[in-house]
Amino acid sequence: MKKVYLYARFQRFWHWMQALIIFSLLVSGLEVHGLFTLMGYENAFHVHNFFAWGLVTFIVLAFFWYITTGDFRQYLTEGNLIEKIMMQVRYYLIGIFMNEPHPFKKNEISRLNPLQRITYLMLTLVGLPLQIIFGFLYYYYNELVALGMNPDWIEPIALIHTLLAYMLISFVIMHVYMTTTGHTVTSNIKAMITGWEEVEE
Ligand code: HEM
C-alpha cells in the first residue's frame, strides 16, 4: 500500500460546506413544507433562503476552482462509459460480497470510479442547477406573475422542487453508504477529511 494525496484543501472545504448547506436546506425545506416543527415556519423560510444563496455562491466558487485547476478532468471517462459503469455496478451488487478486488484502482490522477464520475457529474450539472432554478422560480413567483408568467405554474414548480428534494435525500443516503465501501469502512471518509488515502501500489 502507499499513501496518496487525493483531495486538495479547497476541495475538502467545499465538500463539507456543500454537505452542511444541503443538510440545512433539506431540514428547513421540509419544515417549510409542513413535515415537522423545529424552528417555526418564518425562521425556516429565512434559513432556507439564506442557505440557497450560500449554495449558489459555493457552486460558482467550486466551478471556478475545478476549471482553473484542471481537476474537472477527473470527471471525464475514456473508452466505453456504459461498459465501465456496468463493471462497477456488478462489483457493488456481487463482487463486493465475494471479496473481489475493486475493478478500478485509485491514484492521484484517477480517484473516482466511472459510476462515481457520472453520478457526481449529473448531480452537479443537472440535479442541483434544476433544484436551484425551480427554487428561485418558487421564491420570485409573485414578481414573475406580475411579469406575465402563468399563475397556474406554481403547482408544477412546487411539485418538481419537492420531488428533487426527495431525490437529493435518496442521493445522500446512497452516497454515505457508498463511501463506506472503500479499502476499509472509513478510508474514504478519512481521505475526505485529511486529503490522504492509502491505496494499492
Ligand atoms: C449532503 C450532501 C452531499 C453532497 C452533495 C456530496 C457530494 C459529493 C461529491 C460531488 C463528491 C465528489 C468530490 C470529488 O471527488 O470531486 C463527494 C465525495 C465524497 N463524499 Fe460527499 N456529498 C455529500 C455528503 C456527504 C456525507 C454526509 C459524507 C460522509 C459522511 C460524504 C462523504 C464523501 C466521501 C468520503 C467522498 C469521497 C469519494 C467517495 O468515496 O465517493 N459526503 N461528495
From TrEMBL:
Membrane topology: Multi-pass membrane protein
Keywords from the UniProt entry: Cell membrane, Electron transport, Heme, Iron, Membrane, Metal-binding, Transmembrane, Transmembrane helix, Transport
Main location: membrane
Record-annotated membrane-spanning stretches: 50-67, 120-141, 153-177
GO cellular component: plasma membrane
A biological-process GO annotation: respiratory electron transport chain
Localization per record: Cell membrane
Residue stretches making up the Cytochrome b561 bacterial/Ni-hydrogenase domain: 7-195
Protein name (Swiss-Prot/TrEMBL): Cytochrome B561
